[in-house]
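Lay summary. Proteins are chains of building blocks that fold into shapes, and those shapes determine what they do. In this project we predict the shape from the chain. Here is one chain we studied, written as its sequence of building blocks.
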Amino acid sequence: MVIHGAETDLISLVESRTRPRTEPPVWREYWNPARDSMQRVPVDATMEERFKLIMSGARGIAEVKNDLITELCTGDWLYLDYWGCTAEVFGGVDPPGATRWEDFISPMLPHAKPEPPVPLDCDGSVGVETSGRYLPTSANTTSMIVSLRHHVQDLQAMGEVEVAKLERWQNFCAAHPEFCVVYQIDF
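And here is the predicted shape, written in a compact code that computers can read:
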């Protein structure tokens, strides 16, 4: 809905995610170019008024949509240990079959040129940096979990609780295909 949605769809989405008598989870502040600073949106502003304020700050619709995906469609964050990262699990190349973030959001950018294929260095690693964000396949996530479990004694950034959480997320996404894990390389 966010990627293909029109302005009224975005307003409706934020309305649907806002409980009565509370502020919305997004669109609380906007950039005011005249003041060269962020300004608080009045608490009693309607969603349509909020949207117009957000757009008045010289932000494009694609940026507003990207913020909505991040704020409304991304839940919790989890730092993976080295043993679960793409360098270890996939040898430094894109996870096979994973969707690059740039490809996922490309429908929001109808006038943008398609991203060229990422050339690989002579060792097979990614030679050009992208956002480093992927929507991995279920098999990709399984490979990460298997690697983490195999190196459980070597984990430094994670413990059993975090590995179990990743497994729960993968199981949830497998049961609900409209959801997915998002993997972000921390450059």
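What the prediction tells us: The chain has seven helices and five strands.
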